[in-house]
Amino acid sequence: MDSDEAITVLVVDGHQTFAELLGHALAGQPDLRWVGHARTGAEALSLAAELRPDVIVLDPELSDADGIAIAELIRVRQPDSRVVILTASEEQSLVRRATTAGAAGFLSKNGALGDVLNALRTAHRGSMTVSTDILARLLRSTTPATAPRGGVANGGLTVRENEVLQLMAAGLDARTVARRLGISVHTCRGYQKAVLAKLGAHSQLEAVAIATRRGLLRPDPR
């Protein structure tokens, strides 16, 4: 692949050694190109605006800022740049906050390097990746037996809301879902909000976890 066509990646991590190791791994991939390293939230915002990378790998535990807040700012300012959260933390709240902020992936630093590299490719295509261990923890944290306030036990979804849910489960963002269904992004986001409300979820990932526990998803939502 031509280097100009490779997926550009900005690494945001306060640990120099880790960032260099990840950068070295990226250099060995013909379809991925490391374009920079930011150590702080301030540097991340500056380099993201300057380099306009396709994907940003971000550690949420930065020395000068809340990494999730930085991810949200980047997504607002540069909607074409996808953010993948890569963390050593096991705090469940981080997953929910990251997906609410629009992150395209949430992976553990303890996972396999190949999974990280594939997550970058998946993010660039407009889909979401979540580490299986993180998803398993989220599944365990949801309670399927009782209907959430404002919903019913089976979710009470309309046909269109169910279609949106299936594509959310495939990790697709609002723009891609809207394109698949032939509706506007604004309308799609309205359906997504309705799905979250009926399932009692606060993020796309949590909605998918709850739907999985309740058997609302088809085997292959793609």
TrEMBL record:
Taxonomic lineage of the native organism: Bacteria, Bacillati, Actinomycetota, Actinomycetes, Micromonosporales
Entry's Gene Ontology molecular function annotations: DNA binding
Domain spans labelled HTH luxR-type: 150-215
Residues the record lists as 4-aspartylphosphate modifications: D59
Domain spans labelled Response regulatory: 8-124
The keyword DNA-binding belongs to this UniProt entry's keyword annotation: yes
Keywords for this protein: DNA-binding, Phosphoprotein
Residue ranges of the TM segments: none
Annotated InterPro entries: CheY-like_superfamily, NreC/VraR/RcsB-like_REC, Sig_transdc_resp-reg_C-effctor, Sig_transdc_resp-reg_receiver, Tscrpt_reg_LuxR_C, WalR-like
Protein name: DNA-binding response regulator
